[in-house]
Prior knowledge:
By secondary structure, this protein is an alpha+beta fold. It is built from 6 helices and 4 strands; from the N terminus they run ααααββββαα. The protein has helices at residues 34-42, 47-58, 68-84, 89-104, 150-158, 164-168; strands at 121-126, 129-136, 139-142, 145-147. The protein has a 4-stranded antiparallel β-sheet, with helices on one face. Strand 3 (139-142) and strand 4 (145-147) form a beta hairpin. The radius of gyration is 28 Å and the shape is elongated.
Amino acid sequence: MAKKTSSRGAPAAPPGLSQNIADAPLPPPQPSDPLAAEIDALEHLSLDEIRCAWREKLKTAPPPLRARGVLLRLLTWNLQAERYGGLGPETQRRLKRLAREYASAPDRKLRTPIKLHVGSTLVREWKGVSHSVDVVDGGYVWNGKTHKTLSMIARAITKTNWSGPRFFGVEDVDPGDKKTRR
């Protein structure tokens, strides 16, 4: 005996129900986060409409940008920052330090180091050969051997005196330092 199915091919509702649930229209999907819905609505606005939304939502004048996408990203970031919090204290300190460095020497390249964490892998190509270094407790592993510093590895690779952090493009951080682990 074959089972009864609805017009959609789903099993029919049990006998006794006045309406077949399987045939009932589905409600439109609703975003679970009102902020997500608000941001989605902003995606469809023109540049002038985004500027109006900025004034309405942030109660300030928008920056004088002509790039719609950039202004939209700034607005959505500000809305998210109001809702969930902005930049953390460490990031704020780092940005202030970079601003001071730039103000004192605008022609100098700004240094934005990358902190190493245990478990990270650094890859550097030198003269057509790719070198992989793993960050471990107490040092760095390269070619199966543990070295105390990146400079030791850079010297072994290049056969010259190189700053290891500069060679690998990172800030030299003690891998055993508890503050650098996540």
